[in-house]
Amino acid sequence: RATPSPPSSSRIAGGEIHPDPTHLSRGMEGDDPMDFTWTAGWEAACVDASPDPDPDPAPQEAEAEAESMILVSGPRVAVSGLRRADCRAGECVLFVNAGGCAIQGDHPSANLFSSDSFFQGGESIETSENIVQGGDYPSLYSSARYGDFTYRFDGLAPGDYYLDLHFAEIVHTAGPTGIRSFDVLVQQDKILSQLDVFKVVGGNRPLQVLDIRAFVGSNGAITIDFKGVRGNPMVCGICIRKSPATPAAKLGTRGSGLCKKCLTDVEISSPIQKRTAKLISKYEKQIEELTSQCNIKSDECSMAWSLVESTNQELDRLKMELHQKLVQTDNFEQVLDTQTDQLRKVSQNYENDKKLWAAAISNLERKIKAMKQEQALLSLEAHDCAHAIPDLSKMIEAVRALVAQCDDLKMKYHEEMAKRKKLHNIVQETKGNIRVFCRCRPLSKVETSSGYKCVVDFDGANDGDIGIINGGTAKKTFKFDRVYTPKDDQAEVYADASPLVTSVLDGYNVCIFAYGQTGTGKTFTMEGTERNRGVNYRTLEELFKIAEERKDTVTYNISVSVLEVYNEQIRDLLATSPSSKKLEIKQAGEGSHHVPGIVEAKVEDINEVWDVLQTGSNSRAVGSNNVNEHSSRSHCMLCIMVRAKNLINGDCTRSKLWLVDLAGSERLAKTDAQGDRLKEAQNINRSLSALGDVISALASRSSHIPYRNSKLTHLLQDSLGGDSKALMFVQISPSDNDASETLSSLNFASRVRGIELGPAKKQVDTAELQKVKQMLERSKQEAKLKEESLRKLEENCQNLESKAKGKEQLYKNLQDKVKELESQLDSKTHSQITSEKQQSQLSGKLKEKEEACTALQHKVT
Ligand code: ADP
Ligand code: MG
Questions:
Q1: Is 522 annotated as a binding residue?
Q2: Ligand 2: distance of its center to the CA of 491 in Å?
Q3: pTM > 0.85
Q4: N or C: at which end does the chain have fewer Cβ atoms within 10 angstroms?
């Protein structure tokens, strides 16, 4: 070690330590520890005088490490604790046990180390741990001052002093290095840079930095500043020693030299002078070397420091990152928890579902089993069916044949229907295209009470004869198609009219009207009452009934109009609002007349009919104050339109049925009318006589039929004449009071009937009818016969088939028998051959016997 160190012997005297700085003796002025003149000499003396009996085995590297932190020359390092031998009496001015209390030395009366004082700032700390290589005073290293602190020692005599600093890392004893590094400044000069005690000696181990030179000026103070670089500085003990007496005094005679630091002129002897010059040059070289090394090291240090800095920054960043990661981990854990919960729920659901599915699957399996069984059965059935296909095809053929037969029958039915229609028409025609029924009402209570008598004789009513006893003895007889007595009810009256209804459905136009004096029951016959419904309602009822019966073959579309003809004007009784426009009759096509703008109420079924009829009847009443009076002077006309469609052959027909309640036929003279009344009566008379004229023109097959002479006949044009049928109810009163009117009505009716029912036509019609009837009967019988023969043929066919089958069987049996017989024949032939053989053998024997016999006979003879 090149650094000169002061002599280690007799350096401290324990008893001379004064805690009070005022007692401190003042050091020598101008005394410089760096003074080579005495340093060199002391080095030799020191080595000789106090050889270390137990040298510290501290590794050289540690010392080198510590020395690299010393910035000035002079101080030395010891990596072990203070030894008794190092304490040189007389030199020590003060020894402070930093952070601790006073410690006694060998001499019991004096303290070796004074308690901690002279400090500013920082805190004390102690350890109970063992101080390794603690020297003779390990307790010195058990306490320390740490933090930001300064020691200031005042009252010292100006001069040179030595400072010994004692350190130990007693806090961060397990490191790491670099956790505590600090600078030490003496008198504001940095002596130690970034001292890291742990790095040098480790934890709980002493480190001494000795012989730090301090020059005390006129202020008499030494300041030692501890400045942390990393962490807080820490110090265990501070020793202030007075620099030993300058050896220059001893050397003065032998020469002189100049101290480089304090420029004190020191006397040096000449032999020493030479040696010293050598040494100086040697040391200067060494110093240069060391300075360059030091520079390199400090560069390295700063580099290392910056590295440490960046590493620390990196560490901080990593810490931040770690913190973030931890937060993230927490979040993830939370998410994980919730997801675990969800998973648990899902797995629970899954388990439940699994159970359900398992149940469903087993159920399905059962069903499948059952279905399989069913399938097996079905396949068996299918098998059977497949076998039965030949039968099926036969059946199909049979069904086809039946269908064909059915079609044939339909055709025949259709033909028959046409024939029936024709015949029905002929029957109606034979009865007369215009028929007249006479109906007499009963005597009313008023008439009876007024003493009126009945003048009508109904004796021949059943034969259509009616007599009017006029004036007591004279009796006039009339003949009609039918005569109804007052006892005959509505149903009986309608029964005779109903065949005409069928004609409407067959496509013929029909006209039914009631004629007669007012009050004779025209309205009663046609309309009737709610309880006793008349021809109108019953007709429609019948129409719907037949339509329903025929619905499979024909569809009917029925609509109704209700009109009134008054004073040669047409009024629509179904119109909801009165129309200002005059209703007129128009010809739409050949034989088809209609009134444009008239309401045609479509009736779907019988339930709607009564309402419609009532609507018409009620609105008839609206126009007048006196219903009966008005109605007696107007014609009320109900028109039923029937559209039929034959579903079999697609034929469509359109026909009309007029049901007319005529105005009263009473003669003008009797009413004795004038003005409007007269006009009314004239109109009525005109229209009724027009009706009579039309009928008579029709009967006489006149080329001109005067339909247009009145609105009534004009409206009825389609239903009067041609193929149309007409029925007139002539209504009469039985009262003798009305006798003349009755006679007049009967005369009119007889005229109508008489014209039409001419005997020749009737006969012709009857003959024709008879013929057709016979034809019908014949064709019916033929059909029956044919059916019968067909059936018989089928039966025959079946018989023949069964017979053929029987014969086949017989043939088979016979064949079997033939075979049997053949085999029998074979066996018989065989037996015959053997018997023939036997026979020839026997005959041979017989011959032999015969010969023998004859020979014997010869012998006998
Ligand atoms: P018209 O319409 O010809 O003027 P009505 O039909 O109004 O005559 O009949 C006059 C009255 O005679 C009515 O009260 C009616 O009920 C009654 N009446 C008519 N015919 C018969 C009958 N056959 N049986 C019972 N009452 C009848
Ligand atoms: Mg009437």
A1: yes
A2: 19
A3: no
A4: C
Residue ID of nearest Cα to ligand 1 atom 16: 524
Calculate how far, in angstroms, residue 349's C-alpha sits from the geometric centre of ligand 2.
88
Nearest to residue 238, comparing CAs of 119, 124, 69?
119
Give the orientation angle of helix 270-431 with respect to helix 759-860, to 10 degrees: 100
DSSP string, 750-816: HHHHHHHT-HHHHHHHHHHHHHHHHHHHHHHHHHHHHHHHHHHHHHHHHHHHHHHHHHHHHHHHHHH
Average pLDDT, stretch 299-319? Answer: 93
Reported as a single tens digit per residue, the pLDDT across 318-347 is: 999 999 999 999 999 999 999 999 999 999
pLDDT (tens digit per residue) in 463-481: 889 999 876 667 888 998 8
Q: Look at ligand 1, atom 20, and give the residue with the nearest C-alpha.
A: 521
Which mutation among 524, 532, 632 tests ligand 1's pocket best, with the greatest number of atoms within 8 A of CB? Answer: 524
What are the structure tokens assigned to 64, written together? Answer: 């080198």
Query: Nearest bound ligand to CA 524?
Result: 1
Check the annotation: does 539 bind a ligand. Answer: no
* 806 in a labelled binding site: no
Identify which of 439, 440, 441, 456 to mutate to test ligand 1's pocket (most ligand atoms within 8 A of the CB): 441
Residue predicted with more confidence, 408 or 303:
303
Q: What is the pLDDT of residue 504?
A: 87
- Residue 448 assigned ligand-binding role: no
Which residues, in sequence order, are bridge partners of residue 641?
559, 656
Angle value at C-alpha 488, between 483 and 491, nearest 5 degrees: 105
What average pLDDT does range 728-746 have in this prediction?
A: 92
Rounded to an integer, what distance in angstroms lies between the CA atom of residue 473 and that of residue 455? 11
Ligand 1 center–CA 467 separation, angstroms: 21
Average confidence score pLDDT of the chain: 80
Strands 434-440 and 482-484: parallel
Which whole-number Å values give the CA distances from 638 to 370, 559, 654, 724, in the listed order?
Answer: 70, 11, 17, 17
Tokens encoding 376: 């097996």
Residue 269 pLDDT exceeds 80:
no
E strand or H helix at 691:
helix 675-699
- The three-state secondary structure class of 388 is helix
24 or 56, which is more confident: 56
Question: What is the Cα–Cα distance from 636 to 564, expressed in whole angstroms?
Answer: 5
